[in-house]
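U., I forgot to send this yesterday:
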Amino acid sequence: MNSFVDFITNVNGAVNNFVWGIPMLVLLVGTGILMTILTKFFQLSHFGHWWKNTIGSIFRDKHITKHTDKDDKAISQFQSLCTALAATIGTGNIVGVSSALISGGPGAIFWMWIVAFFGMMTNYSENVLGIYYRRKNSKGEWCGGAMYYLKDGLGSYKGCRQIGAILAVLFSAFCLLASFGIGNMSQVNSIAANMDAAFSIPTFVTGIALMVLAALVIVGGLKRIASVTEKLVPFMAIIYILGAIIIFFANIGQIGEVFAAIFKGAFGLRAVGGGIVGAGVKMAVTWGMKRGVFSNEAGLGSSVMVHSNSNVKEPVRQGMWGIFEVFADTIIVCTLTAFAVLSSGLVDLETGAVLSESSGSALVGEAFATVFGSFGPMFIALAILLFAFSTVLGWSHYGTKAWEYLFGTTSTIVYKIVFIVIIFIGATMNLSLAWDLSDTFNGLMAMPNLIGVLCLSPLVMKITKNYVDRNIKNKDIEPMLSVFPDINKDHANQGK
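Result:
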């Protein structure tokens, strides 16, 4: 058994190094830069507009949070956001940040910000394309995602029909594997390890409990998942953010030193752990970007599969929720986690070396303990439980949609059963292998998706310009709501 695990680890390591090489990072960030330029820096130039029409609209527009009718298979915009955030706000915000600091130094946080800034427009573009190319299945449920805009979007280009179809299948297959890695094993493994460390609960007990709880929600389909996440996500996010803010104000005197360490580490003015400067910059960039993508998932094409189930009709409106999703996940939550660790005295801000033997969530728990005492590690253990379990729920939907594309709607129950069983395996497996597998599946999944976004970037620019002209510049022109004439006509008749 050990030799088999070693074999898988070695093979995965080779694939991981290839997948996450410089070309992949250039493709990832380059796509975000291109979409930022083509949309005229939408995340900055229209900051007030997208903020007002996302989180700001919750308090003034009941349509955003209103549940759909029982017979309507769509979910509300707020439910789609919460389900997407359930999948993105997870162990990446705690364990991922800790891993980035340990392996890439404080400078890794800067590169997480860079990935997030440009990733906002990658995620935006994915959601715009997801709504534009979505269609309904035999059950009347919306189906959207990279597989559809690869097949129907990229595939509509002259000579690209077969390429689009192949990439759609590859994306679905990689998404299926990723749902077991980033969306299941790594999340559950973190929960089990923390429950064991904080409360001495055996990992197999945690695995069984999580299997039962997940089954009760996942088998009920998207509406039940959305019903749970819209209650769980705001609660868990607010509680964690409040805890991190208390630490921020407790250590506010160190804000200058912390941010100086981040910027100096990012540009090689200070090496990781006092090592070679050039190697330090490479590690900061690589780990910052890898953990940034793991955290906010921009470029993976994952969250678009739940955003496409929203009852929204305007592609850009759902795209703006994608911008907020990345902003909330990385700019807010990950930054607060990083500050808590860097201001705790557990990291030498001069060299970037971690002074503690703890790693992963234990390092963050130790940082919280400097302010909250013995309650700190327990607080982080409970946060991991909520964050990671909600991620499992969100990713179960992504995997279901990938399975549906490959094998049909009626057989999705098979995937759900397999996904639930793997929860127990994830709870008891090797932690480092779980994380390594997640990194590999992330990269493989991102490749076909980013190709699709790049090839369809002129369309995203056109749809964005159409929206801005109509809703911001008040021009009287026809809306671009769907590639399918019948859906487009129906949406236009029903209004925005």
